Amino acid sequence: MKFEKKIGIFLAGEAVRKSHNFPRVLYARAAGPRRSNICSVIFEMEATDLIPRNVLVVDDEPLVCDAVKMMLTFDGHVVDTARSAKQALEMFAPGKYDVVFTDLHMPPMNGDELATRIKSQDPDQPIIMITAHSEQLQNTPPKGVDLLISKPFLLENIRQALAKVPSRS
């Protein structure tokens, strides 16, 4: 079996509890402006056979945005990132992206409003929301959002979500 890296985002301290499920933790560090509550973790794991897609990742937290980009790039996807909903709307054009990943809470425009605005331009655009607040949404995606991924998450969660949304190619 071919093993490669697996990346996950965890709240600090959780990485240690989760790591027993994986062959070996290669790297763990706290990063970003909230160094005390977020860390990135890289594990070994098998590669995937997903079809490469053009992806837009939107998150105001640089660590999360960069980690999701790293995960998707690892699987061969072409990834653009935006640090705000406003920047995402400037980058978005119908048909440009196969899927959009967005955070829920981003000032001044939240991910649900971003999803509504994107869907008004392209009703068939798949949108996946990554949020630490899925319980507030009662695990039901807001209007305009196709799927929800709860934080903390793993590369496998991203892969499963991508497998559920139709390819636009």
Features:
single chain; 169 residues; alpha/beta; Rossmann fold; 5-stranded parallel β-sheet; 27% helix; disordered N terminus
Q: Would you give an account of this structure?
A:
This protein is an alpha/beta fold and 169 residues long. The chain has a domain of 116 residues: Rossmann fold, CATH 3.40.50.2300. Helices cover 27% and strands 30% of the residues. It contains five helices and nine strands; from the N terminus they run E-H-E-E-E-H-E-H-E-H-E-E-E-H. Strands 5-4-6-7-8 form a five-stranded parallel beta sheet, with helices on both faces. It starts with a strand and ends in a 5-residue tail after the last helix.
Blueprint (SSEs and pairs):
Blueprint (H helix, E strand, L loop, with lengths): L2 E9 L2 H5 L6 E6 L7 E9 L7 E5 L3 H13 L3 E5 L2 H7 L7 E5 L7 H11 L5 E5 L15 E4 L2 E2 H10 L5
Parallel strand pairs: 4-5, 4-6, 6-7, 7-8
Antiparallel strand pairs: 1-3, 1-9, 2-3
User: Roughly what fraction of the amino acids lie in strands?
Assistant: 25-35%
At the fourth CATH level, what is the homologous superfamily of the domain at 49-164? Response regulator
Oligomeric assembly: single chain
CATH classification, class level of the domain at 49-164 = Alpha Beta
Under the CATH scheme, which architecture of the domain at 49-164 would be assigned? Answer: 3-Layer(aba) Sandwich
Going by helix content, strand content and strand pairing, the class is alpha/beta
Principal-axes shape call: globular
Radius of gyration, in Å, reads 15 Å
Strand order of the largest sheet: 5-4-6-7-8
Enter the CATH topology name of the domain at 49-164. Answer: Rossmann fold
Contiguous uncertain segments of 5+ residues? 1-7, 9-45
Major beta sheet summary: 5 strands, parallel
Order of helices and strands: EHEEEHEHEHEEEH
Give the integer mean of the pLDDT values: 76
Helix content: 25-40%
What's the number of helices? 5
Q: What gap, in angstroms, lies between the N and C termini? A: 30 Å
What's the β-strand tally? 9
